[in-house]
Structure formats: C-alpha cells, structure tokens
Amino acid sequence: MTKVFITGGAGFIGSHLADAYVKQGQEVVALDDLSTGREENVAQLSATGKFRLVKGSVLDPQKVDELMRACDICYHLAAAVGVYTIVEKPLNSLLTNLKGTEVVLEAAARYGKKILIASTSEVYGKSNKFPFSETDDAVMGATDKSRWSYAYAKAVDEFMALAYYQEKKLPVIVVRFFNTVGPRQTGRYGMVIPNFVRQALLNEDITIFGDGHQSRCFIYVGDVVEAVMRLMDTPAAVGQVINVGNNSLEISIEDLARQILKLTGSRSQLTYIPYAQAYPLGFEDMERRIPDLFKIKALINFQPKVQLTEILQMVIEHKKTKLGDLYKY
Ligand code: UDP
C-alpha cells in the first residue's frame, strides 16, 4: 500500500486525485487550509477509512514535516488559485505560492520523498507562439499588473524544484496544468465554466469578458488525475517539466457560452463586459493558450479522453445539485 500526501487535497484537483488513490486502495492524507478547498469535496472519503483531512497550511513547517515523514509520495497542489484571488490578494497569494512550495520541497528533500509539483500554463505568459512547449520562452507582463505575480511565482517554484533535483537529487516532477475543469470547481475565484454554468442555470446574464474571441483548451479533471498518477510512476518523468492539457478542445469563450446555453436550455442573454470593468485595474488577458503534448505523449502515451460536451454535462449536473432550490426548471 502507498501512503499518498496531497497538499491542497480538499481542493478541486486534489480531491479528485484523493478519490482516485482511495479507489485503488491506497491511503491518502490531505493537508488543506480550506481557503479555496472545501470539506464537502472529500466528505465521500471519510467513511472509507483510507483518507484523513488535516486542516492546516503549507506555511506551517512542523505540520508539513510530520506529514511528509509519514508518506511515500507527495503531490504539492496547494496554491492560491483563481484570477480574483491573485489580483485581489497578491501578497497572500505570493506567500502561499513561493514560501509554501519552499516549505514542502525542503521537507521532501529532508526525507528523500518523490514529489510532484503543480505548476501552470500561466508561466508561458502572453507568448504568441502556439502551441506552448515546455522549453519555449515565457513572455511575462509587467509587475504593475498583479495577475502576472502568479505566473512569476509559479516559475520560481519550477526553478526551485529543478534546483532541488539538480543539487539534492530530489526525485521531483513538475507539471504545467492547462485550464482544468470539471465538477467541484468553483466560479467564486473567476473560473469561466462554473461561472457560466451557474449563470445559465439561474437564467442570469452570461458575463463574457472582452469580445469573447479569446480561446482556451479545456481538459477534464479526471484526465489530469490519470496523467499525474501515471507520471508519478514513470522514472523518466523525474527532473522534467511536463505540460498536462488537451489540445483538441480549443474553444472561444463566446462559443463556450453558446454551448452552455444550449445544453442548459437557459433563457440567459450573453453580455459583453470590458476587461476594465470585469477585473480590477492592472489585468491582462491571454488571447489563446494551447498545450504542446509531445512530451507527455512520449513519456506515458497520454491521450485525454473526455470531450467538452461531456465535461459540461457533468458540471451542469453537479451545479444543479449544489444550487438546490435556487435552480428551477
Ligand atoms: N471569463 C469570462 N467570463 C467569466 C470568467 C472568465 O469571459 O465570467 C474569461 C476570462 O477573461 C478568460 C477565460 O474566460 O479569457 C478563461 O478564464 P479563467 O479564469 O477560467 O481561466 P484563465 O484566465 O486562467 O485561462
């Protein structure tokens, strides 16, 4: 049996990862400060006897040390995420994303534990060389636009992880997640699909930021979970930075809104909101973001399976349950 330590284990991706390991019969300990993570994401696991949620922060070195010592492998997914979180609380986000990763890597190195670090497609910044492959240059925005603080912090996390690999021989894998979506993702911090689905189910205006021509490639959270679990078991992935995404699901935000309207049968109207109004000052959006999947294919022959319509249907069903009485047919 493997003992798996997941920081951010009550979060969106972390809770799905915990589900998958528990289903395999492994033991999971999640550390989560419940800032964006939620107990209800892991409530289904409490009766299994294979799962424990520790409420605490990755900024607590003692707690991290204790949990790291007891585990076999670690996934570091705890982070301040979501555009609103980053833009509204840049200091707190920076501390969590820089210092938190430092604490976790230090502990992993102390006990020589294999660790997978979650990074993000944001580190490519506003590069316009498509698709984004791992060794491409990053094109970051200026520091007066706090959105980029997330990308810079995650880039430093990557440097730190690779330095631990190089100098301390720590077995570390870095993954860059591209727009991961599915049930349990909340729209509270800006993510587009849960927001649009909620608005559609409540027949409220669908808030398209900018002209809606910007596009994203979405990947189902279950596909991401499969990818990281297989990478963790792949010796050749150690010391590597690897994109995890789905390059076949590119869609403009406007088309995404229309598809959600169709699938929900909603009476909502599309409304276009200028960026200056949608976000506090100092925000820049990316026009496109497409992953190059050559590396992950070569490593684990990865092929995302779930199509966008299926993902949206799952999110719609989940949201209906969450909205309860608020949602009327
Ligand atoms: N977006 C939007 N309306 C919303 C939330 C987001 O039009 O209510 C847009 C956002 O400006 C971006 C895209 O949808 O162009 C994806 O946003 P998200 O925050 O989900 O992910 P990211 O910006 O990190 O790709």
UniProtKB/TrEMBL annotation:
Query: A Pfam family in this protein?
Result: Epimerase
Give a GO biological-process term: D-xylose metabolic process
Q: What InterPro entries does its record include?
A: Epimerase_deHydtase, NAD(P)-bd_dom_sf, UXS-like
The parts of the chain that form a coiled coil are none
Which GO cellular component does the record give, naming just one? cytoplasm
Q: Which cofactor does it need?
A: NAD(+)
Q: Name one GO molecular function term.
A: NAD+ binding
Query: Which Gene3D superfamilies has this protein been placed in?
Result: NAD(P)-binding Rossmann-like Domain
In this protein, which residues make up the domain named NAD-dependent epimerase/dehydratase?
Answer: 4-245
Keywords (alphabetical) are: Decarboxylase, Lyase, NAD
Output this protein's name. Answer: Nucleoside-diphosphate sugar epimerase
Q: Which organism is it from?
A: Candidatus Termititenax persephonae
Q: Lineage, please?
A: Bacteria, Bacillati, Candidatus Margulisiibacteriota, Candidatus Termititenacia, Candidatus Termititenacales
